[in-house]
Automatic annotation (TrEMBL):
<dbReference type="InterPro" id="IPR011701">
    <property type="entry name" value="MFS"/>
</dbReference>
<feature type="transmembrane region" description="Helical">
    <location>
        <begin position="20"/>
        <end position="38"/>
    </location>
</feature>
<feature type="transmembrane region" description="Helical">
    <location>
        <begin position="58"/>
        <end position="78"/>
    </location>
</feature>
<feature type="transmembrane region" description="Helical">
    <location>
        <begin position="148"/>
        <end position="170"/>
    </location>
</feature>
<keyword id="KW-1003">Cell membrane</keyword>
<dbReference type="InterPro" id="IPR036259">
    <property type="entry name" value="MFS_trans_sf"/>
</dbReference>
<feature type="transmembrane region" description="Helical">
    <location>
        <begin position="284"/>
        <end position="313"/>
    </location>
</feature>
<dbReference type="InterPro" id="IPR050189">
    <property type="entry name" value="MFS_Efflux_Transporters"/>
</dbReference>
<feature type="transmembrane region" description="Helical">
    <location>
        <begin position="257"/>
        <end position="277"/>
    </location>
</feature>
<feature type="transmembrane region" description="Helical">
    <location>
        <begin position="119"/>
        <end position="136"/>
    </location>
</feature>
<feature type="domain" description="Major facilitator superfamily (MFS) profile">
    <location>
        <begin position="24"/>
        <end position="323"/>
    </location>
</feature>
<keyword id="KW-0812">Transmembrane</keyword>
<feature type="transmembrane region" description="Helical">
    <location>
        <begin position="219"/>
        <end position="242"/>
    </location>
</feature>
<dbReference type="InterPro" id="IPR020846">
    <property type="entry name" value="MFS_dom"/>
</dbReference>
<dbReference type="Pfam" id="PF07690">
    <property type="entry name" value="MFS_1"/>
</dbReference>
<protein>
    <submittedName>
        <fullName>MFS transporter</fullName>
    </submittedName>
</protein>
<feature type="transmembrane region" description="Helical">
    <location>
        <begin position="90"/>
        <end position="113"/>
    </location>
</feature>
Length: 323
């Protein structure tokens, strides 16, 4: 029996199962967890990284910007170019990219080299995010696809809730370089987990592939892409510079706590979305935009009030997951 027949048989067996393959889905969730940690950790360690690399906080913020640019420019062309690749090989390639770039980030003393590593990390992220939801849905029967995708995506709120605050605290205690080194070790372990627990699937056949132009011209796609771009851009700007903002208002030692509040309300947002999204999708999108505006105004006019800043961070967390 050739590889194609074996994969199709495996997919058929998984799709008719009435149980979630939690080991494989949690491996996918951990992939998302590491992706979010890699993306956002510099925001919590901005002053330490700036001092070590001899650049300003604004220049360290570009490490997040380059990550986002890498994701933006790579996601669509890479996804299109690799449609025919076997899925697990592609997933391992994306995860392995994080092991390499986080190692480079941990040891680099050059700001330019670190920028390049962050750009390549974004490329890996763009490829990985394009894989996760579809991969999870192929692992289960149609009736379980929604729950499977929810499990595979739980790494994002967990990273926001616990990973980034703990990573920020760890970076403060042992240094930001060791923190990125620890992430490399976790990533290498994840590669073994994926090989052991995540099934392989064939890529799309030539006849099933849609051109980028065809997808882009579908009704509503351009509006969705525009809204998503603007929302994520606004969120990333705020997240990137939250540490210097808190330092300016006298809460520089509370970055981890503010991010924890942000992450916990993001978890609440995930629960609300699961309960409401099937019937209130449009309302949730509008609510997320409104909440983000209110959160930004609350933070902007909070002055030195810790309570107002925590409220703003909480509304911000809700807004991100509602979107």
């Amino acid at each position: 029996m050739d590889d194609s027949m074996t994969s199709e048989t495996t997919e058929c067996n998984l799709s008719t199962s009435e149980r979630l393959p939690l080991a494989g889905l949690l491996a996918l969730a951990t992939s998302g967890f590491i992706t979010i940690l890699t993306e956002a950790l510099p925001a919590g360690l901005l002053p330490q990284m700036g001092s070590s690399l001899n650049v300003s906080d604004a220049m360290v913020g570009q490490l997040v910007t380059l990550y986002a640019v890498g994701s933006l420019v790579a996601a669509i062309p890479l996804t299109s170019a690799t449609q025919g690749w076997r899925r697990r090989r592609l997933l391992l390639l994306a995860i392995g990219g994080f092991a390499v770039v986080n190692t480079v980030t941990a040891v680099s003393t050059s700001y330019i080299l670190t920028l390049v590593a962050r750009f390549l990390a974004g490329v890996s992220a763009g490829l990985l995010w394009a894989l996760l939801a579809g991969y999870a849905s192929r692992m289960v029967a149609p009736a379980l696809q929604g729950r499977a995708i929810a499990v595979a995506m739980v790494g994002t709120p967990l990273a926001l809730s616990f990973g980034i605050p703990l990573g920020t605290l760890l970076g403060t205690v042992v240094g930001w370089r060791y923190t990125f080194g620890i992430m490399t070790v976790l990533t290498v372990g994840l590669l073994g987990w994926v090989v052991a627990a995540v099934p392989d699937f064939p890529g799309q056949g030539q006849g099933r592939r849609l051109t980028l132009r065809h997808v882009f011209l579908m009704p509503g796609v351009r509006t969705i892409l525009s809204v998503t771009l603007l929302f994520v851009l606004a969120h990333n700007i705020l997240y990137t510079y939250i540490a210097p903002f808190l330092l300016q208002v006298g809460m520089g030692g509370r970055v981890d706590m503010v991010l924890l509040v942000f992450g916990l309300t993001a978890l609440v947002g995930i629960w609300l979305i699961g309960a409401l999204i099937d019937h209130w999708l449009r309302a949730l999108v509008l609510a997320s935009i409104a909440l983000f505006v209110i959160a930004g105004c609350t933070l902007g006019f909070a002055g030195t009030s810790p309570i107002a800043i925590y409220i703003g961070a909480g509304l911000w967390g809700l807004a991100v997951d509602f979107h």
